[in-house]
Design a protein that fits this description.
The structure holds 2 protein chains of 2 kinds. In chain A, 66% of the residues lie in helices and 0% in strands. Chain A is built from 4 helices and no strands. By secondary structure, chain B is mainly α. Chain B has a domain at 277-492. Chain B has helices spanning 8-20, 29-57, 79-99, 110-126, 130-148, 154-185, 190-196, 202-223, 230-238, 241-247, 250-265, 278-298, 302-323, 326-356, 373-388, 394-405, 409-438, 453-463, 465-471, 473-488, 490-497; strands at 60-64, 73-77. Chain B has a two-stranded antiparallel ribbon. Classes of the chains: A mainly alpha, B mainly alpha. Chain A binds chain B through residues 16, 20, 25, 28, 32, 35-36, 38-39, 42-43, 45-48, 67-68, 71, 74-75, 78-79, 81-83, 85-86, 89-90, 92-93, 96-97, 102-104, and chain B through 131, 135, 138, 142, 145, 149, 152-154, 157-158, 160-162, 164-165, 168-169, 171-172, 175-176, 178-180, 182-183, 188.
């Protein structure tokens, strides 16, 4: 179970970081969301992975640490609010700046374009 | 009442901010201003009272919900936190005063946002639990996102997206680090963590080290440490003046967290992991100073110049962290208070100059002369002298104390030239900027309105610190010295921080 869990967290983090490095706002927002998923899973695992563990002492043979679950809950709420904010900000940026690039302006076109213009002229 | 004093600097702005969103206060800007200024003044008074109380009675521990630490949530008011809470409250009040002259009309809800931001910063300084540090970071960040784009405009949206995205990545990394540290140490209470680190088995030391260094990256991002400082200039230059002045404390929150984590948890009592961030902080501190200085020379206007001076001050503070002795920390704290107030004042002065120079704003170009050359000139001159570290103002004392704190030849060899050269470059950049702003002028008549009383009151409130911190230099340095002792000698105050003993 640990291996599958670790691979999942790793894969989510990898995809999140990859998407965060893209140039358009939508993939960046998606990347941030994936990163926060990865973080939530990771936080959860910091209390050790355990089957059949109740969080209340005395109700079962083994018990689970309740604190990481509380932390994950907090992190989910905060992450949700922040994602909502950045989605709105990205839409505002699209409206204000006329494009959805993270820098607010499109990068200069690749070199092929100006040459073609020359031919036309 | 006095036992609940510790939480007042958090509760007052929170309740005040919420009340401002409700009728009858939300309907009229006059009522909002009055209420916001009242709440900010009350916060300031409670911060002063808390400082006096923690100085008289020692560290104040406030246990929310009555759960004995390390299990519950605890607020800790020691000398360091109360000093910074007081600083934040002064800054919040100055920012509100300045905004009352008209900046608060640019959009809705300026005053509640400032109060909520002050609440988040105060909370970050007062919490004794590293997860709550994360929560308060998020509180202050979401308020700062809204404040940054307050008033709208292309430039603000553009800078805002970078700022928000970067800080969200930072928050994720913060949580990764917390997960690692909780997984290895089994606790999130800062005092309790400091007792656990030394006893870690060797296999888990590497994990704890990774967690600690990840925290350094996160705090470095907030503090604008070298490879993570590129967001700062643009963000601060885009924000409106009172917001930029309030943001002057934001980088210091990162510095404060580095102090807390890397001197308390990974400090002298951490066994094999003692001062493990030191080899990283040294080069980064010097390079941050260099980057800030180069940026200051290249700045096209006074706002960006000030933003780069913030980076220089962060570099200087990082040097004080890198020196890692009590004297250096004391000097660093003195310098922190000074640089926050003066940089905030400089942001406000830049805005005043910009308002009176017409289209040229605060760019370093020939333009019409300012309406009130003597008033603005004196204010700029005092701020510039203080920030560059020329006697008789506070920057001089701060820098001299820091230079004295370098103890052996190697430390002197690295720290002295870096700090002195950055001061020289600051003088060059500021004098070049100042001469252009005030003396190279065209013959156009000025039509700008003179600065309002709100503006002058706000700048004066911040600038008066420059001479005052020298006049009161004795008590002030004694206080920072005591605060540094408290920070470095955590094992001695453990019985106060963990009344029930470590978990």
């Amino acid at each position: 179970m640990e291996a599958v869990y670790a691979v999942c967290v790793g894969l989510l983090t990898f995809s999140g970081v990859f998407l965060c490095l893209r140039g358009r706002t939508f993939p960046v927002v998606m990347g941030l969301t994936l990163l926060s998923y990865a973080v939530n899973l990771f936080l959860f695992s910091s209390g050790r992975l355990k089957f059949d563990g109740a969080t209340i002492l005395g109700t079962s043979f083994s018990y689970a640490d309740p604190l990481p679950q509380a932390l994950v809950l907090t992190a989910i709420v905060i992450g949700f609010a922040m994602t909502a904010f950045i989605v709105i900000l990205a839409m505002r940026a699209r409206a204000d700046l006329g494009n959805d690039h993270v820098d607010g302006r499109l990068p200069p076109a690749p070199e092929a374009k100006p040459r073609r213009k020359k031919e036309h002229a | 009442m006095s036992e609940h004093l510790t939480i007042l600097p958090i509760l007052l702005p929170l309740i005040g901010g919420l009340l401002l969103l409700l009728p009858p206060l939300c309907n009229s800007i006059e009522r909002q201003r009055l209420a916001a200024l009242t709440v900010a003044t009350l916060t300031l008074i409670s911060a002063v009272a808390l400082l006096l109380q923690s100085q008289a009675e020692g560290i104040q521990l406030y246990v929310l919900g009555g759960w004995q630490p390390p299990f519950g949530i605890a607020l800790v008011a020691d000398r360091l936190s109360t000093l910074l809470v007081l600083l934040t409250s002064v800054l919040g009040l100055a920012s509100l005063l300045y905004a009352c002259a008209g900046d608060d009309r640019a959009g809705a809800y300026f005053h509640p946002l400032v109060l909520l931001q002050v609440m988040g910063i105060n909370g970050a300084f007062l919490t004794g639990d590293i997860f709550n540090l994360f929560v308060f970071f998020e509180v202050l960040l979401i308020a700062s996102y809204a404040l940054l784009i307050h008033g709208g405009g292309k430039q603000k949206t553009q800078a805002g997206f970078h700022y928000v995205a970067l800080n969200l990545v930072g928050s994720s990394m913060f949580l990764f680090a917390l997960g690692i540290l909780y997984g290895t140490l089994g606790t999130l209470n800062i005092a309790d963590m400091s007792t656990k680190v030394a006893a870690l088995p060797e296999a888990e030391q590497a994990l704890a080290k990774a967690g600690g260094l990840l925290l350094l990256v996160v705090f470095g991002l907030k503090a604008a440490m070298l490879p993570l400082h590129f967001w700062l200039t643009r963000t601060y230059a885009a924000a409106s003046a009172p917001v930029a002045a309030l943001f002057a404390i934001m980088t210091k929150v990162g510095i404060y967290s580095i102090y807390r984590v890397h001197t308390v948890i990974f400090g002298a009592s951490a066994g094999d992991l003692a001062f493990m961030a030191q080899p990283w902080i040294w080069p980064l501190a010097l390079l941050t100073l260099l980057a800030g200085s180069i940026g200051a020379l290249a700045s096209p206007n006074l706002r960006e110049l000030t933003a780069n001076l913030v980076i220089v001050s962060v570099g200087t503070l990082l040097v004080s962290i890198a020196l890692q002795n009590e004297q250096a920390t004391a000097a660093g704290l003195y310098y922190l208070v000074h640089s926050t107030l003066v940089c905030a004042a400089l942001f406000l002065i830049a805005d005043l100059i910009g308002q009176q120079r017409g289209k040229a704003a605060d760019r370093f170009v020939v333009s019409r002369k300012v309406r009130q050359p003597i008033l603005l000139g004196v204010m700029f001159f005092v701020a510039a002298m203080a920030v560059a570290g020329i006697p008789p103002f506070s920057g001089f004392v701060g820098k001299v104390l820091l230079l004295q704190a370098a103890q052996n030849a190697t430390e002197m060899l690295w720290a002295w030239p870096a700090i002195l050269l950055s001061s020289l470059i600051t003088i060059i950049a500021l004098s070049r900027g100042g001469t252009t702003l005030f003396w190279r002028r065209s013959s156009d008549k000025t039509q700008a309105e003179p600065a309002s009383a709100w503006h002058i009151a706000a700048v004066a409130l911040l600038l008066v610190a420059a001479p005052l911190m020298v006049v009161l230099g004795g008590p002030m340095t004694a206080y920072t010295q005591a605060a540094a002792e408290q920070l470095h000698q955590v094992p001695e105050s453990l019985h106060l921080l963990l009344p029930g003993g470590p978990s």
